[in-house]
Write a structure and sequence with these properties.
The complex is a heterodimer of chains A (about 230) and B (about 280). Chain A is built from 7 helices and 9 strands. By secondary structure, chain A is α/β, with parallel strands linked by helices. Chain A starts with a strand and ends in a 10-residue tail after the last strand. With about 280 residues, chain B is an alpha/beta fold. In chain B, helix 1 packs across helix 6, helix 5 packs across helix 6 and helix 6 crosses helix 7. Chain B is globular and about 55 Å long. Classes of the chains: A alpha/beta (about 230), B alpha/beta (about 280). At the A-B interface, strand 1 and helix 2 of A face helix 8, helix 10 and helix 11 of B.
Chain lengths: ~230, ~280
């Protein structure tokens, strides 16, 4: 489902003397359907950079990133927009939404973007919010005023409200209590069981042990270290 | 059947449901090598891109970077010195709007296109009631039945969150945010496929901006609209635009997926622009 070959990345800082910083070289990764792969490595090793490249948020310097049959490294913006709408979900650590939009609509949006009618999409969103223990009185409010843990669960609800064939999870259990952590791990296991290919960053070691099939240490993708 | 249902049925007959949201391989708008100078001063140069149905593109850049000139050339308000603006018209398929006759271009401006000005008063008729402002656009494309026009106007005022009891008031009595929403209703009532927006949230309070952004996102999604939005506000494009074009001194220095351009900018100017935004 996800196949990364010989991937490299550099940052060029034009306003700091044109410094060119190579951050990744020779990265390879394959994630099959129903598989969950954890990216590990010290802070700054490039876990998030790799996730962002798979999502098309960062450009690549070389190599390829196949998600399904689309090479994200060479895709046109509209192909990536379509990939994100139909195939590739992303649970970020940060919530970025239009202010004033009710939580229910924020979570229903991925379904609405696929053409589902409003009431069905809102029903599904409500079920997901209930499952993640977001109190019902909050559903009609904008999540911008929520606590960190609540915002994170809204992000998770968006990522799991529909069955994406591939998912990127950035610290999905980071600021959750035990009960909600268990709910999220359950969602990940269900997604794997239906065949989703998942790449995740988990600092929570026991969560990683529970849901991930393999670990990839991205330190091995640092420039100069690749074989 | 109620009057409102009846009129929306007639309305659907006059303006068939927008099919732009469905996947279509052909671009809605193809801009090729568009160039415009003001004497020795360059407005914009060699701009080329394709916009596909349902896409929202943002154009950012500092004052004087040529973004409004470019928008004016695309919307037929300014005559470019060179280049083509090929639009997939509802009636005749792809046509170069630069070389078409003025009456044809004006008709396109009333049927397939809409233009939302930064200053709502530039896009409204201040001496005419709110309902009249919306109805006038329908009459310009041939609607004649008073009941239908009034019902469509009421419907659209509701969609942009203007209370029905304000339908007979003049826009001069409206707040800035309400005027901007009225301008949007006036523009979208004829079911255009492409909307040009020039700083649509400029000059509004941030709380009013948020409400307008929410409204525009909903309309774009539900009507399958394509839009080109000129702004200097990076937060607005992040929330509203799928794609982004960055202009400097009349040239496009970078373009791509909006979040990619903002989070991994490649050009020195874009890097400067992104790093100059004050964090709230």
């Amino acid at each position: 489902m996800i196949k990364i070959e010989n991937l490299s990345k550099t940052f060029t800082l034009h306003n700091q003397g044109g410094a060119v910083i190579p951050v990744m070289e020779g990265a390879n990764l394959t994630v099959g359907a129903g598989e969950c792969v954890a990216l590990v490595g010290a802070s700054g090793a490039g876990k998030s950079t790799l996730m962002r490249m798979i999502y098309g948020n960062y450009l690549t310097a070389g190599g390829s990133i196949l998600v399904g049959d689309l090479d994200v490294a060479r895709a046109q913006p509209r192909e990536i927009i379509r990939l994100r709408r139909e195939t590739l979900g992303y649970v970020s650590q940060f919530l970025r939404v239009v202010p004033r939009v009710p939580t229910l609509d924020v979570v229903a949006e991925p379904l609405r973007a696929l053409g589902m009618d409003e009431s069905r999409a809102r029903d599904r969103a409500a079920a997901m919010l209930a499952r993640l223990n977001i109190p019902e009185p909050l559903w009609e409010l904008s999540p911008t005023t929520f606590s960190g843990g609540e915002q994170q669960r809204v992000n998770i609800a968006r990522g799991f409200v529909r069955d994406y064939p591939a998912l990127l999870l950035d610290e999905p259990t980071a600021s959750l209590d035990t009960a909600n952590r268990a709910v999220v791990l359950g969602l990940i296991e269900t997604a794997k069981a239906r065949g989703a290919a998942i790449v995740g960053i988990f600092h929570d070691e026991s969560a990683r042990a529970q849901v991930c099939d393999r670990e990839i240490d991205v330190t091995g993708f640092a420039p100069g270290r690749a074989a | 059947m109620t009057d409102a249902q009846n009129s929306s049925k007639n309305f659907a007959k006059i303006f068939p449901k927008n099919l732009a949201a469905q996947a279509a391989p052909a671009p809605l708008l193809s801009v090729r090598d568009l160039t415009k100078s003001y004497g020795a001063h360059l407005g914009c140069a060699d701009v080329s891109f394709d916009l596909f149905p349902g896409e929202v593109m943002g154009i950012v850049g500092e004052s004087g970077s040529g973004k409004s000139t470019l928008l004016g050339c695309m919307a037929g308000h300014l005559r470019p010195d060179a280049g083509a603006v090929i639009f997939d018209t509802r009636r005749d398929g792809p046509r170069d709007t630069v070389t078409m006759s003025e009456p044809e271009r004006r008709m396109l401006g009333r049927t397939d296109w809409a233009f939302v000005h930064q200053n709502a008063r530039d896009g409204l008729r201040v001496g005419v009631s709110a309902g009249g402002n919306v109805g006038e656009r329908l009459m310009a494309v041939g609607a004649r039945h008073y009941g239908d026009i009034r019902a469509a106007a009421t419907d659209w005022l509701g969609r942009v969150e203007i209370a029905p009891d304000r339908i007979d008031d003049r826009p001069g009595t409206f707040s800035g945010g309400m005027q901007q929403r009225l301008q949007i209703a006036r523009n979208l009532v004829t079911g255009p496929r492409l909307v040009f927006m020039d700083e649509p949230t400029g000059g509004l309070d941030v709380s009013v901006q948020a409400r307008l952004l929410d409204l525009m996102r909903g309309l774009v999604r539900d009507m399958g609209l394509s839009a080109i939005i000129v702004t200097h506000d990076l937060a607005v494009v992040r929330l509203l635009a799928d794609r982004l074009m960055v202009m400097k001194s009349g040239h496009v220095v970078e373009q791509g997926l909006t979040d990619q351009v903002l989070d991994d900018p490649q050009h020195g100017y874009t890097q400067l622009l992104v790093s100059s935004v004050l964090q709230v």
